Task: inverse folding
């Protein structure tokens, strides 16, 4: 008859096996599965029934479940990636059918931007289950896409060849590094997007102070388009903050 030390060791091995499940599945079911495994081991030990055979069966059955669940997860991810690719192709059909004066490099750049934005949204939005979080991620991704697209096409400060537009790389750097530091948690992401909005506001100020670049659309136009992006970054930040508050307070229970 196995002693408590043997059962503890079996449970430790089983816990390590459960780590092979996908994270969402593991967070929902791993604790209860481990507890059930432990209880059944002790019941069989107390009844004098074979524990080793049960442990082997449990490991085989759980391993099969891990394979099924991970395969299902991969298939779901692949379906989403295929959807993103199809939507990207459909969008690129518009300038092609309209006979826009695009070169092959233009189509490649646009395809990379569109697909990359969709994939980023797909991966990041999974980190939060609330509508506010997903909306915040969507606005942030769309804003980043629009900022890059406009900079490459016409430039926000002067023409697209104006060196001052390189400053917008700093806006993306702050957003990217902030997201890493925040680990995509809503409260940290709210701070990151507020910092991104501040960086967006600083770009024209620094550009006009240092380079004094020629401005095709005029000072008011440059400030106006930057204000538009600032509003979008702030909107995303506020949605992240709202998601954090909902997560912190939970769902209010109705009073009797």
Result:
């Amino acid at each position: 008859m196995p002693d408590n030390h043997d059962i503890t060791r079996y449970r430790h091995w089983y816990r390590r096996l459960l780590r092979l499940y996908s994270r969402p599945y593991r967070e929902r079911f791993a604790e209860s599965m481990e507890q059930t495994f432990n209880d059944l081991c002790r019941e069989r030990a107390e009844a004098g029934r074979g524990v080793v055979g049960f442990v082997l069966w449990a490991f085989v059955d759980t391993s099969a479940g891990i394979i099924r669940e991970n395969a299902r997860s991969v298939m779901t991810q692949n379906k989403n990636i295929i959807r993103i690719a199809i939507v990207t192709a459909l969008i690129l059909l518009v300038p092609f059918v309209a006979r826009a004066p695009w070169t092959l490099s233009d189509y490649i750049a646009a395809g990379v931007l569109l697909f990359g934005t969709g994939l980023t949204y797909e991966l990041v939005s999974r980190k939060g289950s609330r509508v506010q979080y997903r909306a915040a991620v969507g606005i942030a991704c769309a804003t980043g896409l629009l900022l890059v697209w406009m900079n490459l096409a016409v430039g926000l400060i002067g023409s697209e060849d104006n060196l001052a537009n390189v400053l917008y790389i700093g806006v993306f750097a702050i957003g990217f590094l902030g997201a890493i530091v925040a680990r995509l948690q809503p409260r940290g992401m709210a701070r990151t997007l507020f910092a991104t909005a501040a960086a967006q506001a600083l770009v024209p100020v620094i550009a006009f102070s240092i380079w004094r670049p020629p401005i095709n659309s005029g000072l008011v136009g440059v400030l106006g388009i930057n204000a538009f992006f600032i509003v979008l970054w702030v909107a995303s930040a506020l949605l992240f903050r709202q998601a954090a508050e909902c997560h912190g307070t939970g769902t209010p229970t109705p009073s009797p």
Residues 1-101 form one domain. The radius of gyration is 26 Å. Confidence is low (pLDDT under 50) at residues 249-256.
